[in-house]
Amino acid sequence: MKRVLVAGAGGFIGGHLVKRLKQEGYWVCGVDLKHHEYCPSHADEFIIGDLRDQAVSRQVMQGIDEVYQLAADMGGAGYIFTGEHDAAVMHNSATINLNMLEAGHIASVRKFFYSSSACIYPLYNQLDPENPKCTEKSAYPAAPDSEYGWEKLFSERLYLSYMRNYGIEVHISRFHNIFGPEGTWKDGREKAPAALCRKVAETPDGGEIEIWGDGKQTRSFLYIDECLEGVRRLMESDFEGPVNIGSDEMITINGLGEAIMSIAGKRLAIRHISGPLGVRGRNSDNRLILEKLGWVPTRPLQEGLEKTYAWIEKQVLQSAEVK
């Protein structure tokens, strides 16, 4: 039985990944600063620890065959694009990756998955909301729109350097807006689908919700189950990446809000307000993943939104009952 470490197992994607790996028969150790907020961990062992601490990184690597490195200081636009957390984001995430790779190398861990981000793509290729350019090779000349993106790009190169110098097998994905149940939905670190699901769930029919900017900025959103399928296919392939893991079903943020209102059966007005926005347009280019893995995500956005809204609506109702 392979022994797998999931770093960031207390988070949204990490928690779902632990469940997937257990279903496939792996022995799984999870590590995070905290337990998962919304569900008990399925890990065989769960270590509460700070991976910025070299001693913790060395501890969790003992006896491990494969590592899934998802741990990072991150959040939605309200956290990443204000500029108020730049130093922490860069220091914390870079330190985790430096520690994890060196500790894994010393412990003879031979296989790593690293979760990078579509935020590494240049701002200059994402100014037109209708025609963003996010091919994997377009990452250079580098010009990410945030320090979060710069750190992710640095860490991609870090993993590839360890692969070249030490023979470690590395697989790198660039995630595009992963969403689903059991993720952050309040308190400022939530991403657009969860934030809008919460706003719609909290607002009575005939009311009003707020959207940052003009709402014409575009994105694509990938449901968590398809994200995990892409990760597992990449890890079992001979392709190191980086490769996009995302949907190519692009939608405006206004359109996303309207889709969620339809699911909720509510008619709500949209009020546009100023706020951190990120790039004007972003969409996953899936030509390389199809070429290398013979697979692309196909699940409609609507299907994932229905499941996510139902879960967030339940959280909102439970939260209201507690108050």
Detailed description of the structure:
The chain is an alpha/beta fold. The protein has 2 domains: 3-178 and 221-245, NAD(P)-binding Rossmann-like Domain (Rossmann fold); 183-220 and 250-282 and 300-316, UDP-galactose 4-epimerase, domain 1 (Alpha-Beta Complex), CATH 3.90.25. The chain contains 10 helices and 13 strands. The protein has helices at residues 12-23, 54-60, 77-80, 86-106, 147-166, 192-202, 224-235, 253-264, 287-293, 301-322, and strands spanning 3-7, 27-32, 45-48, 66-69, 111-117, 169-175, 178-179, 208-212, 218-219, 222-223, 243-245, 251-252, 269-273. The chain has a 7-stranded parallel beta sheet with strand order 3-2-1-4-5-6-11, sandwiched between helices. A two-stranded parallel ribbon has the order 7-10. A two-stranded parallel sheet has the order 8-13.
Tags for this model:
UDP-galactose 4-epimerase, domain 1, 323 residues, two-stranded parallel ribbon, 17% strand, alpha/beta, Rossmann fold, globular
How far is the N terminus from the C terminus? 46 Å
In order across it, which strands form the biggest sheet?
3-2-1-4-5-6-11
As a percent range, the share of strand residues is 15-25%
Number of strands: 13
Main CATH class of the largest domain? Alpha Beta
Major sheet size, sense and barrel closure:
7 strands, parallel
State the helicity in percent bands.
25-40%
The residue ranges in which pLDDT falls below 50 over 5 or more consecutive positions are none
